[in-house]
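Re: the multi-chain job from yesterday

Posting the exact lines I submitted so nobody has to dig through the queue logs.
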Amino acid sequence: MVDVVRTKKPSVHKRHPAGGAPTAPHSADEARRVDASEPRIDVAAVTELLLGTWAQARREAREMIKDEAFWQIPGQSMAEHRERVLGQLHRFVEAGAAGRAFPVEHGGQNDNGANLASFEELVLADPSMQIKGGVQWGLFGSAIQQLGTAKHHARWLDDVRTLTLPGAFAMTEMGHGSDVAAIGTTATYDPDGDEFVIHTPFRAATKEFLGNAARHGRAATVFAQLITGGVNYGVHCFFVPIRDENGDDLPGVTSEDDGVKGGLNGIDNGRLSFDHVRIPRGNLLNRYGDVDAAGVYSSDIPSPGRRFFTMLGALVQGRVSLDGASTTGAALAEYIAITYANQRRQFDSGVGTDEVVLLDYGKHQRRLLPRLAQTYAQFFAHDQLLRRFDGVFSGASDTPDEREDLETLAAALKPLSTWNALESIQECREACGGAGFMAENRLVGLHHDLDVYVTFEGDNNVLLQLVGKRLLSDFAAQFTDKDAAALARYAVGQTAGRIFHGAGLRRLGQAVTDFGSTARSVELGLRAEQQHELLAGRVEQMVTDVATALRPAAKLSPADAATLFNEHQTELIEAARAHGELLQWEAFAEGVAGIDDAGTRQVLTWLRDLFGLWLIEKHLAWYLMNGRLSAQRAASVTRYIDRLCARLRPHAQDLVDAFGFAPEHVRAPIASGAEQQRQDEARAYYAALAASGQEPVSEKTLRKQKR
Amino acid sequence: MVDVVRTKKPSVHKRHPAGGAPTAPHSADEARRVDASEPRIDVAAVTELLLGTWAQARREAREMIKDEAFWQIPGQSMAEHRERVLGQLHRFVEAGAAGRAFPVEHGGQNDNGANLASFEELVLADPSMQIKGGVQWGLFGSAIQQLGTAKHHARWLDDVRTLTLPGAFAMTEMGHGSDVAAIGTTATYDPDGDEFVIHTPFRAATKEFLGNAARHGRAATVFAQLITGGVNYGVHCFFVPIRDENGDDLPGVTSEDDGVKGGLNGIDNGRLSFDHVRIPRGNLLNRYGDVDAAGVYSSDIPSPGRRFFTMLGALVQGRVSLDGASTTGAALAEYIAITYANQRRQFDSGVGTDEVVLLDYGKHQRRLLPRLAQTYAQFFAHDQLLRRFDGVFSGASDTPDEREDLETLAAALKPLSTWNALESIQECREACGGAGFMAENRLVGLHHDLDVYVTFEGDNNVLLQLVGKRLLSDFAAQFTDKDAAALARYAVGQTAGRIFHGAGLRRLGQAVTDFGSTARSVELGLRAEQQHELLAGRVEQMVTDVATALRPAAKLSPADAATLFNEHQTELIEAARAHGELLQWEAFAEGVAGIDDAGTRQVLTWLRDLFGLWLIEKHLAWYLMNGRLSAQRAASVTRYIDRLCARLRPHAQDLVDAFGFAPEHVRAPIASGAEQQRQDEARAYYAALAASGQEPVSEKTLRKQKR
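And the result, structure tokens for all chains:
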């Protein structure tokens, strides 16, 4: 392809075809050539670490989706995409991968952890497949399994597992999403027919956004207000057939198609409404509440509130799996963007060398490396969440406290990881420029599909508010009634500490060290223990501050109390976010602590530090205002991050390689090495041109010669 | 639809069908009923203000696109979408709206401001149409107009305007996007044939991401290294025919299709490569550089660097129009989300009233209202940019200084407004929950389409770096050589001020007032002048800091100097961002200053304050570290924002109504009033049920009665 005769090298920019990088080493190998003591991660070992407790299940899922039949086809029409994804789920069944969490007697493996772990990996093939599978087995199937009893399992679980009975999970309504307790659909018991009458009393009570509702579902698990004997016993779940063998709506059922969405268009989301649809009494999924033939209601859980939350809690796996899937999605985006950033060159450095590799730019490191650290933290935090989930659902540690902790943990982590995924994917897409906007390079598709993860299975802000309330009640539990005075003193002490923040500064001994040699003192003062102290201290104080601000509520009218609460809603949500960040950091720190290999531990410690410092930098104003960091130390946080980025830069490729993705999982041409190949070709062209003596001289050089 | 017999109201949550809002007034009307002195904006007058200098052109464009033939159809296949958009451009021509910036003698109106203004409005119909029109008239056409001379205008402009000659703008290559100077395509003059030979010497030199290249383009304006007589004169632009009448590639030309993208799929982006394609010498667009028949090069601009930047600068209109279009796109998203937030209710407040309207939640106000303020600022800033653009391109104020200022202003504003658009659209999408994810509600489509605005027509980070360099050179220009000592003293003074930040605090007299009554003192200390001082002071100091940090570069080796610069790249980009934010704030303040109506001025002053305080809050850590705000004042910034949000809450609907969108521009069912209608129906149902005496009692009430 090199044409040395007719065209000539533009020497506006000097190029040295064999030139080295103008800045730091590009790989751990290069770094070791400069300094033999440079640590290096054991890539394979880190892959195992990230795959976590259910590594084998994940490996099997990844192996399965190497088959291109599972891959998303960008630009496929909605109708074709829907059929393709349905077919993928059938293949999934054939591979024996479906319904692993189901009881052994119904073809499952009763393995909750492995089930979610393998399911999360499907995001690499096509998030539509992941979520449609989640609807079928994780929501529709789980509702039958968790809210139903043995007779329901016997009747339906096998067909659910094998996809013989595709179903919808009909909880959300047009009028009520996050506030499930307020749904309008009714299930009124009619003792004459021994039936429940499922009814949609007004348009806003139409079931909405349900996967499988527009086309493929044959039945639905419908949440409705259970009414019997003139009493409303609150929301319960009912098994309701919706389509016949031909796929036509059954009498009284109306389905509608939601049409095109922002992503996940391989799923046939739609609406369902019911016009006095009669179902047998036995179709009430009656694990937590039952109605006898005479219409008498009974439940093992007397409190309607606790019963409601127990039923919802049984469905927590959706949130757990989104935490894992969004982490894997972000990791894929980072693999693509960092691999490209290690090959793509743009602008020469003005010092007569080759053009600069993107990842050598300070800004580019800043854009990508902290997000990589965040994703590592999420892998570790997710494995902890999954172990807790498995413990509760396997029965090994199924106590009310453990259930509550699991729900709180899922509610804290899912918002952070789903938002982080969107932000990371977007940053990766922008970091790849126009190439990042091409569908073939995956990044835009990941963003489109994962977009809705931040508002479904619990709106992120609503979930964080739940976490915040839990933090408040834990906080209040520390103080018995007679300790109210102590609480008041504590609160005052905190406020005083904030106003006269000398005390806060002394806690970290900054006043002394800050005026010494900066680089060393700052690293001494921002190591693991201090990061932990800063992150944990922030959660404590934020919760204390909100609790203190809300104390007067007890003496106010309900309306004024609601107003007061509303005024502090943002702070409460921020406290919950801080709590989630702390948990992620702690999980990362625990993960690193368990590593034996010195090189791996060193590099991952840097990455953990980068994550911690990045969190602290995000909230730097808070630390300053609250006297937790001096202005000097705060300024050094940013410099320390820059230094950590530079240190980690040669390890960036190792760190994304450790995600363990095969080419069949990545599939993005820009991360395939094609860019490097094109550059090599261009470089060879210019080299041959220079060697030929036919290279045109640049106008600038010419002008200099003339002068 | 109300069925009072068979179903009963779920009274888990109490509802008062006629209940009022639990918190603040929802509209300016309601607010006035509470307090007659409440100001109110004159909605129509604000619409005029926002439409700006070329209001008439914008109104005409908006009127035209009320025709549904111009609307995007979500989910349409790429092939159909491409043909539809091409058809829309033909309609645009028929409406006489195309090529308004072209010379009168070629069917245009020589009206640069009106041309861009009307073009920007097309984003409301379909961003693909806006951008494909931009490719045809703003890039391909502008290249001929701005870089060509009278003979080129006479030959092609009429056909370009009427779309008889659709064309591509072939600047970017696979290997080089932002770094245009380094492109590989060559145009070698062959005196024997009096022709230029256009050639793609290697794969990376393939022209890439070009609208109209995959299908519709018949010619392209191709940027290539001009080589004649063995000398490379740098990048010039050439008119190159690429397809014949049948739409087939001409000999030597190879076109490829980029396929599906993250958005803008109504545009046929593709690649072009050239295998020794011969074009007449006259096809060089020779306004800034020419070659005679003997192959002798000549130019009015002797410096190759200045010539290059002059040619690129002539194409600044792309950036200008993206600033406007992304502002309008963000405004549409905010109209949809705020209108919905004013109707949608979720969760009762626990005080026996109706469910709470979303916009009454403190967090929801916090999510949406500062972004609304941002968009207002952008409208004002954009009108200033457009006036400057019109001044230069109409010739009214076409000086080198004005051109440079225009380019810097466009480079500062385009990154901010395009990023803000993406962030605002995403926040709006999330604020609408699942409904926000439905394509029919527009938000996801806007995000998909506008995504690439942040990296095309100049990558945002690269543009900000350009602005940063300009700021540095302006800064350096203040100090002549002999003033180097003064600069050094200045820098030292700054650093000292940062370490001992008592001085900084005194500047705003905070040390005294901060310990007084908070609410009043903070507002006194954070009004317009102080906002301006804080924002402007930050730009000054950031530039000074970077300049100081880079001073040693002069004494370093080129490699070490490049390393030093790279270490401060992020700071330089942040300084440029601060500069852009200051310009937006100033434009908003100037806009408000010109308002006569007292009510309008008051409300827009609050909105301007919200914008200013929001910017200050974003950078609060910087203000604290640099001693520009005390911890107490910094803490009050957040409280002040909360208060401003509460004050503006009743005006939110007026403020988005003032964008002046007709239902044909909005088209989102959730912003159509359908939500309100559904709620009214539900409310009527429950009211009728209560009146009928058939309402089921809640289990909770029952249990209380039993006790």
